[in-house]
Amino acid sequence: MQLIIAFILIIFLLSVKGQIPQLPNYSCNENDVSIQLTLSSLSHSAWNSISNCSLQQCNVNSNNNSCFSSSTHCFDYRSINNTRYCAPAISCSILERCDNITQTCSTNNSICVINSCCSSQAVCLPLVTTTMCEKGWLYTNNMTNARTQHKASVLPNGRILITGGYTGNNVALNTAELYDLPTGTWITTGRLADARWIHTSSVLLDGKILVAGGFNGNISLNSAELYDQSTGTWTTTGNMTHTRHVHTACTLSSGLVLVTGGLDNSGFALNTAELYNSSTGTWTSTGNTIDTRYWHTASALSNGKVLVTGGEAGGASNTTELYDSSTGTWTATGYMITARYAHTASVLSNGKVLVTGGFNSIALDSAELYDPSTGTWAATGNMSDARYLHTASVLLNGKVLVTGGFNSIALDSAELYDPSTGTWTHIDSMANPRFFHTASVLSNGLILIAGGDNNNALNSAELY
Ligand SMILES: *[C@@H]1O[C@H](CO)[C@@H](O)[C@H](O)[C@H]1NC(C)=O
Ligand SMILES: *[C@@H]1O[C@H](CO)[C@@H](O)[C@H](O)[C@H]1NC(C)=O
Ligand SMILES: *[C@@H]1O[C@H](CO)[C@@H](O)[C@H](O)[C@H]1NC(C)=O
Ligand SMILES: *[C@@H]1O[C@H](CO)[C@@H](O)[C@H](O)[C@H]1NC(C)=O
Ligand SMILES: *[C@@H]1O[C@H](CO)[C@@H](O)[C@H](O)[C@H]1NC(C)=O
Ligand SMILES: *[C@@H]1O[C@H](CO)[C@@H](O)[C@H](O)[C@H]1NC(C)=O
Ligand SMILES: *[C@@H]1O[C@H](CO)[C@@H](O)[C@H](O)[C@H]1NC(C)=O
Ligand SMILES: *[C@@H]1O[C@H](CO)[C@@H](O)[C@H](O)[C@H]1NC(C)=O
Ligand SMILES: *[C@@H]1O[C@H](CO)[C@@H](O)[C@H](O)[C@H]1NC(C)=O
Ligand SMILES: *[C@@H]1O[C@H](CO)[C@@H](O)[C@H](O)[C@H]1NC(C)=O
Ligand SMILES: *[C@@H]1O[C@H](CO)[C@@H](O)[C@H](O)[C@H]1NC(C)=O
Ligand SMILES: *[C@@H]1O[C@H](CO)[C@@H](O)[C@H](O)[C@H]1NC(C)=O
């Protein structure tokens, strides 16, 4: 990550030209991704010896674009056609030269970098995605299937697995696809035994993905299945005791997966909870939550407990409860200031839990923090936009990115929460308004937004 940040910073310092003869105004700041360089997803590909990397390298430790020779720190660049270039930060000899009059490149897959380490000669840098700054959002390839109310999990190999979802006309999907980070492409990967939406997707300690429950257009499901990234195949595993959709699933440090609440096949809200043990492939009940709930959240805290918040329970709920996995029991903890469902909950690096937005007669802009050491909730800054059915992702720098959601219409807006100040900053909007989408933190720190709803199920994806 540091290498990638360093590299993006280098690019910030260089003058860059795209295909457009008119130079755009660049106003990059910390929150912008000025140019997406798809380096290898392998964090140490810098030491790949695909070719001789003894080339001139920009000095990443200084802001003056000075260069030095190095036989290490070679990056694995990939062009859109997956051609690999092993080169130091910017190599001169490997790279196509820009047209010396228009300062453009012959393909749209490269950008012209002037004032690079290649001194007087402007060079074309091959990229998977070429998006100039002004926006922190990057376009990436469309998914194979348009889908909403699907789920996403980050695999141990860095790929993102997208499963199931709704396409409209009461049709559930049984397809799954992978987002491949180095190439920015989507790869279909097997089929689920059961088509489903509003299910859950959990990463097990052995790297398999457990998909459980959901709705298939006719019925609520109790079935569960496992995805194996090494074979790209799906196998069914034990059924849950209860059918459920709009439930939650959370992987405990023991490796068990805790599933809570949801709606059953009759549309009744559940207070049941159960645990999946991957060594037996079976589910066992583990106490009942104090309240029935669906459209709630469940978060594994750093102290080993699980915090369940709010949800729909004959109206929006302000109650929260804790699961103690050592005793298998549930106890009430502090009331949220605002009752809410279809909200988000994120565990911050300081151990507190940030709850944002949701619905309670109206869409909510409020946010609050749970302190596990006191069991109490405190208000924090309000978002600029009220929203529910949105996403919240903890970035590698500790900030929280909130995207999209619904408030009478699908929203394209995005905001960043800074835990150190408790404030929100409105950032550039996504290209597409969306709710019921997914947001996944990639290993390189970018956030992949995929699919969702804007009157129709969406196939589009974007990176922040
Ligand atoms: C850059 O900004 C200036 C002043 O804000 C504006 O006049 C100009 O049109 C902008 N150029 C582009 C390419 O947007
Ligand atoms: C790499 O290049 C350097 C400098 O040109 C040379 O000394 C070295 O032998 C080369 N290494 C390999 C493995 O080709
Ligand atoms: C540029 O940075 C290098 C390494 O930090 C330093 O040796 C050199 O003096 C700097 N040059 C200028 C012009 O600041
Ligand atoms: C990929 O594109 C580069 C030019 O950008 C070209 O030289 C190379 O042959 C292409 N490779 C493949 C496999 O198409
Ligand atoms: C531009 O490049 C062409 C050929 O690549 C060369 O003949 C010409 O002298 C160059 N012009 C300048 C101003 O460098
Ligand atoms: C680059 O993109 C522009 C605008 O999308 C398009 O007009 C042009 O044909 C493209 N050039 C190449 C070489 O693909
Ligand atoms: C993505 O799909 C939309 C339609 O859903 C289409 O308009 C757009 O051109 C596609 N983009 C790419 C890069 O294929
Ligand atoms: C739902 O029920 C209809 C009518 O019985 C049937 O055609 C359809 O295949 C069912 N869908 C699923 C996903 O089971
Ligand atoms: C799961 O339940 C379904 C019916 O809901 C049944 O057809 C299936 O055989 C069960 N699977 C297992 C592994 O018990
Ligand atoms: C899972 O089940 C196995 C076999 O019954 C048991 O040995 C193991 O302790 C269970 N795992 C957990 C985390 O409880
Ligand atoms: C929680 O909600 C209930 C019912 O909506 C309300 O009666 C109660 O006062 C609320 N509790 C707190 C502490 O806000
Ligand atoms: C946040 O918004 C709520 C209403 O949604 C309002 O009561 C509260 O005063 C606001 N808090 C701040 C810090 O602006």
TrEMBL record:
- The keyword Electron transport is annotated on this UniProt entry: no
Which InterPro entries does UniProt cross-reference here? Answer: F-box/Kelch-repeat, Gal_Oxase/kelch_b-propeller, Kelch-typ_b-propeller, Kelch_1
The entry's cellular-component GO terms read:
nucleus
Q: Does the keyword Metal-binding apply?
A: no
Its keywords, alphabetically, are: Kelch repeat, Repeat, Signal
Q: Where is the signal peptide?
A: 1-18
Q: How is this protein named in the record?
A: Uncharacterized protein
